[in-house]
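Protein 1 of 2
SEQ + STRUCT:
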Amino acid sequence: MLQRTSVVDNMRLNVASFSSTVEFGDISYYQAFSRALAVQRERKTFFGNEGPFDYPIFSEPIPIPPITENINIMYHQTKPIIKVKTLDITAVSASSLLQVGSTRHIYAETRIKHIRQLENHSEELKNQTIIPLEEIHSSPGTSIINGSQ
């Protein structure tokens, strides 16, 4: 692996969270893993035990396709330095890597289960006309505003 010096004159990073890494320089191996439940509710009520991680998304194997082609790389390094003037980053999150340098091997995995819990609005919807989504997409220029066309 190439050995280089990483130089960053100025960096502004607002947030680094949830298994994220900020790295200056070269690394041989990087592995990051995070999992999260993203629960959205109409009513802001939280119980503290919002759910277990036993959903299939957290245990299903991720298929990694095999590399079947040969990759030939030739490096010509005129200066053994990576020079960056300014980095202005809003956020890195959920097993991400912000790096100025090189990495030989990397494996990063984030699994997020999004759950939306809506209140029962069946009484409000009784007198509304429900239009199947297919009909909306099949007629160009159709728009629905407040339940009417």
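Protein 2 of 2
SEQ + STRUCT:
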Amino acid sequence: MTNFSSTLPMSELFSTNRLAHETGLRAALCHLDALGGHNGLQPAIEHLLSHPRIFAYIVSVWDRSAEMVSQIVDDFPTDAQEYRSSLACEILDNVSVYALALPIESLAREVAKDIGRYRAFIEGAHPVLCALSAMKFADVQSLTSAESDDRVVNMQASQVMRKRNCQNARVTIDASLFIKLGMAVPPTSQAATSLSTDILAELKKTLSFYLSLLRRTELVGDIKALLFPNVEESAKDVAPEVSFPEDAESPSEESAYPMVQPMKAALFFDNADGFGDWQILISTEAYKHLREHRRADKKIFKIIYKKIKSVF
């Protein structure tokens, strides 16, 4: 399977027509498995980012996507110049826009707010980082060029300094760019460096948020539905209605009865009337086996899925 997938161009290997079928999806994931570490994956990631919905779908269904996500976040650049041309910047630009298309009813209220807030921060951070790189400060200037000739007198040096100050004054800094982010224009080079570092740290946190969002179990169906909008009940065929206990989100609207924790307490209920729809919680290992069955044999997966639902 790996050899077969590696002979196809990525434009075909990761096409929606192929990914819509189990064999095509399996071939694409096997190809990613064969690429190895982050350096081997980067060309594939860059290709997928040109199609954000495909990128999101692959991250949501690939068993090894957690390793990829961890490596991308760890490799986040620490320099503003490097950031603007980095893979992390490209991912943030694409995925932050994609996330706005996720159905709000599938998201917790705070998560939905974070999606909008982080997108606004990304849009505002880019021009501010560019402005910080272009700014010049008197505390880092020198008279080296003015003193290159031993015959230059102090008056000439003063004239050079005044000329430089006039040139710097003509460098216009749009203070509104900083105000949009709730920041002040830095007065010194040290303050500018500190501000740039803070912005990059926030962008790294934002990147982690978006990539983790794509791996949420409860969003797998919605992510697939966005990629294949014409496939009937596409969301139901991707994964059963299960989620990790630690990732379970609180409903956006409070029900008549609160969710009871821990989940073992559910074993002692004689009557579940009034609790609404039950959420099935399974272990990480069990969920891994379910995903393996879904990839290997869809018919067997559906049988298991129906059995799980019939128990409850």
